[in-house]
Specification:
There is one protein chain. This protein is of the alpha/beta class. The protein has one domain: Rossmann fold. The chain is about 50% helix and about 15% strand. The protein has 9 helices and 5 strands; from the N terminus they run βαβααβααβαβααα. Helix 1 runs parallel beside helix 7. About 40% of the residues are buried. It binds flavin mononucleotide (FMN). Flavin mononucleotide (FMN) binds next to helix 1 and strand 4. The site of flavin mononucleotide has 18 residues, from helix 1 and strand 4.
Amino acid sequence: MKVVGIHSSPRRKNSNTLKLLDSALAGAKESGADIELIDIAKLKIKYCTACDSCHDKGVCSIKDDYQLVLEKLLGADGIIWSSPNYMTNVTAQLKTLFDRSPLIVHEQLFDGKYGLSLTTAGSGIDEVDFVLNIMNTFMISCGGNAIGGVGYAMAQGPSAIDAAIVKSQEMGKELIEAIKEKRHYPEQEARQEAWRSRFKYVVLANRDHWTHNCDYWMEKGWLKE
Ligand SMILES: Cc1cc2nc3c(=O)[nH]c(=O)nc-3n(C[C@H](O)[C@H](O)[C@H](O)COP(=O)(O)O)c2cc1C
């Protein structure tokens, strides 16, 4: 079983968020997973140019480190997303990775995978859930399952990080349990089903140049649903 952790803070080893990610990965490892941490802030991942190549040919036209990350994500059973709160959002590094991923969304390529989200903030105690929700929503939009999240704000006091580190380790273990038992999240599945029933009209409207997406949807039988 493989778990990939995505680290997206440019603060590298000094990162608060990395402490949570390390702990969650340690929990996953204790439960038997092979783990790998990918620091996307060190990689070269350019902005999406909306060229439509992924929709048409099933491959991104930009040649950079995204391909490597995509391969790792597609090969994982579990993904741990982590980002500090930057302007009540994820970092630009993580957002850029998300933007490069329409193929994953359009073809629901995270089907059967499980995700956990981690965040840290400065004063934004009330923004923790919002940022976690951005990462969890991405996971669900890609056809995967989001098991939950852990976060804290520095304004909660110096002991908040310790509690979040402990909780992250527990959730790393929980991620492995969810993978092992192929846990169902009916509310997330309903969202995905509702999305497919809406999005088929977008696929059909673009059938002339979204060849790869269209063939994939036909193969899956989603255009008939
Ligand atoms: C560019 C930037 C934007 C930030 N925006 C917010 C914010 O909107 N709300 C907040 O509570 N903290 C904000 N912070 C503080 C970080 O979220 C906080 O220090 C976090 O723990 C940093 O994580 P890291 O050490 O993993 O990089 C911001 C920090 C930076 C550098």
